[in-house]
Amino acid sequence: MNTCAIIDTHAHLDEFSDPQAVIEEAQAQGVVAIVAVGQDRASNSKAMRLAARYPGVVFPAIGYHPWRIDPETHRETLTQIDENLDHCVALGEVGLDYKAKAKKKVQKQVFQELIALANTHDKPMILHCRYSHARAHQMVKDAGVKQAVFHWYSGPIDLVPEIAASGYYMSACPALIYNPYHIEAIRAVPLSSLLLETDCPVTYQTLESRPVHVRLTLEKAAEARGGTVQEIADATTNNAKKCFGI
Questions:
Q1: Which of 8, 13, 74, 90 is nearest to 41 (CA)?
Q2: Which fold has domain 6-244?
Q3: 107 CB contacts (<8 Å, ≥6 apart)?
Q4: Taking the model in full, what pTM does it have?
Q5: 40 and 246 in contact (C-beta within 8 Å)?
């Protein structure tokens, strides 16, 4: 099984005390690439540094998470993204979170600015959409965003075909271990629209996730969908390469 080449499309490598160890562990288990996702200026900088340290393995995505919206550093964050996005594979993690502290109006304004940057630099967007999947989808679609990833997809099942029809992706994560709704959602995603991730270092029940656990996501996705591990690995790896240009 370790011959299956797979990609972790969403990892917060900046949150590990020893990123080298978790990167090498993942490589030993057939993880051929990791998308290192940022959320603010500090994590964006770390993601870019790790990508420079591990070329061809770690690929940076820089973003501005709705949890991290800060009026005092807002302009500096957008400037950092604008100045560095051409050297990254995606803009993210960004989006809308209707349970976050930031007001919906502020989140929407920030998201619109980020959408504009994604279009200017012709980069895919990695989206966080808690309780806001339909709104986020409508906004990126209306703006003409070419590629987007609805990460850890937990939105409405009936929205899945619309997202797929827009040419966008949805990703599975280790929540497939225990979450029946995530299982149902990932079962509904067309294989041509599916990606794998860990969102590490998120803890799933007792599992403290690391990039290597994208292999667990693969196994559980195959189990949920009734396909073979090789089939899911081949499709999702090709999808990730197409989406991120890696």
A1: 74
A2: TIM Barrel (3.20.20)
A3: 66, 69, 96, 97, 100
A4: 0.97
A5: no
Alpha carbon distance 29, 213 (integer Å): 9
pLDDT in tens, the chain (246 residues): 457 999 999 999 999 999 999 999 999 999 999 999 999 999 999 999 999 999 999 999 999 999 999 989 999 999 999 999 999 999 999 999 998 888 899 999 999 999 999 999 999 999 999 999 999 999 999 999 999 999 999 999 999 999 999 999 999 999 999 999 999 999 999 999 999 999 999 999 999 999 999 999 999 999 999 999 999 999 999 999 999 999
Where along the chain do its domains lie?
A: 6-244
Which tokens belong to 14? 């900046």
